[in-house]
Amino acid sequence: MRTPARRRTTLRFSMTPLIDVTFLLVTFFLAASQLVKIDAGERVDLPSATLAAAAEAATPNRVTVTVAADGTLRVAGQVRDRVFVAALFADAGSKPDPEVRLRCDRAAPFSEVEPLLVACAEAGVRDVKFAVLQREGGGGDR
Fold first, then answer.
1. Rounded to a whole number, what is the distance in angstroms from the first to the last CA of the chain?
2. What is the Cα–Cα distance from 63 to 40, expressed in whole angstroms?
3. What predicted TM-score, i.e. pTM, was given to this entire model?
4. How far apart are CA 8 and CA 112, in angstroms?
5. What pLDDT, in 10s, does the model give residues 99-113?
6. Can you tell me the mean pLDDT for 26-34?
């Protein structure tokens, strides 16, 4: 008795899932790069310091405020007023381990920075750091 001959079947490989995953990865990295750009904010001429420490990783309760040379306040790339920033500090102060990072242009008048320090104190934020450039030796921006 003769056995029936088996027909060879070719395997088909579906590219659709791979294309979907590739598209999702490209979309994710594009969105992540835009968020990094927004967080960096406006370019400012940071002051230099000899005792600057290396930059630390971002903490979940960090608020970063940029003070431009003309006194303009920016949070996450958007221009804000002192009332908004004070409310932001108050919200951060109600969370555990709040941190405020001030990126002040070297030409920014202290009269624009002092109200931010007062608002931090009133909100209970004790961890206030200034972004600076390292003048000599190791370190980074703090």
1. 86
2. 12
3. 0.62
4. 79
5. 888 888 888 888 888
6. 83
